[in-house]
Amino acid sequence: MSHHPDASAPHRPWPACRRCCGIALDMGSARTRVWIAGRGVVVDVPTVTLPGADAVHPIQRGAIVDTPGCARMLQRLLADRLPRLTRPMVIVTAPVLDGVAYRTQARAAIDVLRPRTVLTVPSARAIAVAAGADLSRPLMVVDVGAHLTEAVLLGDGDITDARRTALGTGDLAGPTTPEQIADAVAAMLTAMLRQDRTSLTVDALHRGILLAGGGALRPEITYHLTGRLHAPLRVVPAPHTAAVRGAAELLQAAHTHPSASGPLPPAARSR
């Protein structure tokens, strides 16, 4: 996002009109979660174009590989949940690395909803907001998803370093073990420490690692992470929905921006 609305600011109610709506989206490789203003998280389903035995997965390893299929999924999930003729304000989470490509394709898919504007936020920052973390201090966020794990260092709320591995909880059904996921996270953090010429990474690790994603619900993963990271580990409440909840908080804060009450300026529309 170009600017970071204060998620702690008072939120004015969404306008009581059929054409006004706010949507937060978290589209992962395994599951898609949708928050709608005034209704909360109303969708938490597998990320598939159409359900069934021949389901097609439009998002794989954190990348949108089928943009039209992703659009069809959103149409199927949300067409009957939004008022007719609505022009929603939409915020979508994006992986930190390869985020530019993801954001471009996500916006193209979201066009099916005829949005008034589309905002994007890195998943790690949305997680930090959902956790109520103090973003003025260095913060390490580890997001263990189904098919992708990211380690992200935030400084003053901005991304200062990030690593990823194409491993997650969905791989545990195969040869991948919880120990391997924990080893991959430890290797990413070690690389960040070695390449950091400041004290940000050290300060963030001393403060404690914020753990989110479905992997944070797996005790076998948290156990091995605790043994390998040598740093306090703090699991976000309801870690599997943290990204969409944090995005919803940022969306509500963005709704208080003066541009949200009238035609949005070009800079806001292009975010």
Characterise this structure:
This protein has 271 residues and is of the alpha/beta class. It has two domains: 22-125 and 242-269, Nucleotidyltransferase, domain 5, CATH 3.30.420.40; 134-235, Nucleotidyltransferase, domain 5, CATH 3.30.420.40. It contains eight helices and twelve strands. It has helices at 67-78, 99-110, 123-130, 178-195, 200-207, 219-229, 242-255, 266-269, and strands spanning 22-27, 31-36, 40-46, 59-60, 63-64, 89-94, 117-122, 139-144, 149-155, 158-165, 209-212, 233-235. The strands form three sheets. A five-stranded mixed β-sheet has the order 3-2-1-6-7, sandwiched between helices. It has a five-stranded mixed β-sheet with strand order 10-9-8-11-12, with helices on both faces. A hairpin with a 2-residue loop joins strand 9 and strand 10 (158-165). The chain is globular, with a radius of gyration of 18 Å. The N and C termini lie close together (6 Å).
Which CATH class of the largest domain is shown?
Alpha Beta
In quaternary terms, these chains amount to: single chain
Strand segment tally: 12
Query: What's the structural domain tally?
Result: 2
Helix content: 25-40%
Structural class: alpha/beta
Order of helices and strands: EEEEEHEHEHEEEHHEHEHH
* Count of separate DSSP helical elements: 8
What gap, in angstroms, lies between the N and C termini?
A: 6 Å
- In the CATH scheme, what's the topology name of the largest domain? Nucleotidyltransferase, domain 5
Q: Based on the structure given, which CATH architecture of the largest domain is correct?
A: 2-Layer Sandwich
User: Going by CATH, what is the homologous superfamily of the largest domain?
Assistant: ATPase, nucleotide binding domain
Strand content range = 15-25%
